[in-house]
Amino acid sequence: MPLPGRRLAPFFCLGFLVLSVALGVLLTVLLTRRDGPHHCLPPRYASAAVAADTRTCSQVGRDLLRAGGSAVDGAIGSLVCTSVLNPQSMGLGGGVIFTIYDAQKGDVKVINARERAPQNFPQNLLNQCHDGLLPGPQWVAVPGELRGYQEAHRRYGKLPWKALFEPTIQILRSGTRISSVLNRFLNHTALHSALERSSLRKLFVDERGNFLGSGDLLRWPSLIRTLQAVAENGADEFYLGETAKKMVQDVQKEGGNLTLEDLRNYNVSVRDAIKSELKEYSIYSAPRPAAGPILFFILNILKEFNFTKDTKKAEAYHYIAEALKFANGQKVKLDDPDFSNITEDVLEELISDRFAHEVRKRIDARGDHPLAHYAKANLPRSGPFGTSHVAAVDQEGNAASATSTINHPFGSMVYSAQTGIILNNEMADFCMKQSQRKISPGEMPPSSMVPSVLLSKGREAVLTIGGSGGTLIIPAVVQAIANTLWLGEELDAAIEAPILYADTKNNAIRVESTFDQDFCLYYRAAKRLTTMRLLVINFKN
């Protein structure tokens, strides 16, 4: 559903937030166009815009742009704000991936600050994998969020580092109240019982020990102190300073494995974005261990079906569903390239037109094939969990697409009371691994995140897109692109449209309850109704 206040300046600035059980989904898109004809001078855009998953955090980013900040400044400011207003989804104790378009240079870089495996993690950790929530200190990976902000700001920032944190510090000082969205997470049956047993409980209860509800004041003085220290001292405060010492002390007190050495040794990965062609657009996204290659694989399959606005929706959605099923079988290739035994040649083949053509020949009108038709190995474990996304474009046409996460709702539910930081449970993403190769210290887990930027051939338009929701990110982004570029829908309708996805456990097709009824009838007529299950319940924010 549309987020309130989503239109910022004269841009389409669109998003939806969907909740289902312990599941959060966000799709954020910015569509921008140049103002005026081509000139030799660098192009100026009509205005600048930021889209986050709350109005407040979108405004924080917008105000930073108005103060002369870059797209990256706006994105970072919005992310810091989101860590306070939606702490169930992301925060300083997590990780982030930026895809950044530099309009002056014409290149697109990816800054991957995903969490990394610590030096001392349980060797039998993968034996504890299952399909539900995975709270607990054993799942905490080394946070990368602030090193990601630092690197992005060093390369592309304009405003002082401190300025990116001041709006959120002021929000906390003034007092932030529990939103209806956060309230639903806090009071969901499965999450509530886990929170009751966790150290995070102390953050979200009142003086009488009752969980806070919608509209209640959330007091977070320890996080104010941490944000102030980071604003003054830089990211080193988190990785080398007193904040690091206090956080490690709290994690180890709960039985976690995080050490000061882990924090000291953390480093980000900076690579060129991967690229694919879609009609008059070039699309750029994040390479593995992010899921950009899977996104491209799906789009390459679909683009040769030559969908148009006259294509029957039920037919188009059937082919999208089949492409998603084949994509599930390819996710085993998303290992960290610095530790993987899967070569880059394999990844280049995955996103090639030739491979897409071969897969396309295996897609028919049936769609009821066994798993072996779609994948040579068992499908990877993964879940439709949290994360948050921010999209930003500045007046010079630079774009930042950033996805951040602590993984499952409230991450590991390990809370550092001294620092106010909620720790991730990103080690749970290694449950997606299919090979027998062990996890290596310093390795990044595979991810479904696809922060992406679409550029027209003449660089006259920028579509900045990304999403959240674990395994739902890819199908949501695919369908938004397909609906907009091929099926002739207006962008706002494409973003708000209900989605389908192929369940990673068994390739069953799931849809939102309001999904296209012709498609549902198509499956019912083929006696495949058993694959259709309620996916989400929409809540107004």
From TrEMBL:
The entry's active site is: 387 (nucleophile)
Among InterPro entries, the record links this protein to:
GGT_lsub (IPR043138), GGT_peptidase (IPR000101), GGT_ssub_C (IPR043137), Ntn_hydrolases_N (IPR029055)
Q: Name one GO molecular function term.
A: glutathione hydrolase activity
One GO BP: glutathione catabolic process
What positions does the entry give for L-glutamate binding? 114, 405-407, 429, 447-448, 470
**Pfam short name (any one):** G_glu_transpept
Read off the PANTHER family from this record: GAMMA GLUTAMYL TRANSPEPTIDASE (PTHR11686), GLUTATHIONE HYDROLASE 5 PROENZYME (PTHR11686:SF19)
The UniProt entry's sequence similarity note says: Belongs to the gamma-glutamyltransferase family.
Provide the protein name: Gamma-glutamyltransferase 5
Organism annotation: Anolis carolinensis
